[in-house]
Design a protein that fits this description.
This protein has helices at 22-25, 37-47, 68-77, 93-102, 116-122, 128-144, 166-176, 227-230, 261-265, 268-280; strands at residues 5-8, 53-55, 81-86, 106-110, 151-158, 180-185, 207-211, 214-217, 231-234, 239-241, 254-255. The chain is α/β, with parallel strands linked by helices. It has one domain: Alpha-Beta Barrel (TIM Barrel).
């Protein structure tokens, strides 16, 4: 069969400079830019009959793409369940209303600190007040337009500088009236010798101490991964990647429109990657930080 879910990257651009993110660090070795609407529609045409979920984010801030909400509408009109994620700096009155009207099913809003100081310790160059104002605008328009959508998820990335704020963020989520609060563990690239972002409360960490000052992933890496048969990622310039951990597109399995999605999905590169994963997943770099 074909994938049930697809993540599409509207843009690699971002207004923030988060320290564990290639977009924030401006550290991509791959080309950067916005997806062309023609490419997006071309892929949608090929996949819509089989797709159920369409995630409109990968790297970058989706709202920076000037036609982001148009992309949402196109997918929603095809009956797809649409999901996106934002740092909420672009939820102006106009965008907040248009988001509700676009048919977007689920929107994750990243809010990783309850004071400007803790917020910008990770979300560098971000403005907490702007995030809260944008979120309130979105919730206001949802109410005003009597819309059940989008399901608004307040996502709190737990790191050492903000972990003491967990009780307060639970309270804030109730006060704001968001649909869901998610406490998310942070992916850290250089975790082996410990890292100042790893929380002291290890319930909120992907890593655990292994003695001698070394740290390891909590979950052992097993030679299996359902994602390889269920979903894929499409970069802004049409590269098909195996999953969202391949942030710098190291494992390109093909490029659209040079080949059709079906050819890539059923092609030799994809097959070889799946086989390697079933044989020796720990040898695949991007799997070394995976929560699956």
């Amino acid at each position: 069969g074909m994938p049930l879910s697809l993540s599409v990257e509207p843009t690699t651009a971002c207004n923030l400079r988060c320290p564990e993110c290639p977009s924030g660090l401006r550290s991509f070795t791959r080309p950067t830019g916005h997806i062309a609407l023609e490419l997006y529609e071309h892929v949608l045409e090929q996949l819509a009959p089989d797709l159920i979920f369409l995630t409109l984010y990968f790297q970058g801030e989706p709202y920076i793409h000037p036609r982001f909400l148009e992309m949402v509408r196109l997918a929603a009109n095809k009956g797809l369940y649409t999901i996106s994620s934002t740092n909420a700096h672009f939820l102006t009155e106009e965008n907040a209303r248009a988001t509700v009207e676009s048919g977007l099913d689920r929107l994750i809003v990243s809010l990783d600190g309850l004071s400007q100081e803790t917020y910008e310790s990770y979300r560098r160059e971000g403005n907490l007040e702007e995030v809260l104002s944008g979120l309130r605008r979105l919730l206001k328009w949802k109410k005003r337009l009597k819309s059940r959508k989008p399901h608004v998820v307040l996502q709190f990335l737990v790191v050492r500088p903000n972990e003491h704020e967990i009780p307060a963020v639970r309270k804030l989520a109730r006060e704001l009236g968001v649909d869901e609060l998610q406490l998310k563990t942070a992916q850290i690239y250089e975790y082996e010798n410990g890292h100042p972002l790893i929380p002291t409360d290890l319930r909120y960490s992907r890593y655990k101490p292994a003695g001698n000052g070394r740290w390891v992933l909590k979950k052992p890496i097993k030679n299996r991964c359902l994602r390889m048969w269920q979903g894929a990622v499409l970069t802004w310039d049409g590269r098909v990647l195996p999953c969202c951990f391949d942030k710098d597109a190291r494992h390109q399995l093909g490029q659209i429109p040079l080949r059709s999605f079906r050819e890539i999905w059923k092609g030799e590169n994809y097959d070889a990657f799946r086989q390697k994963l079933l044989r020796a997943r720990e040898e695949i770099g991007i799997c070394g930080n995976c929560t699956e």
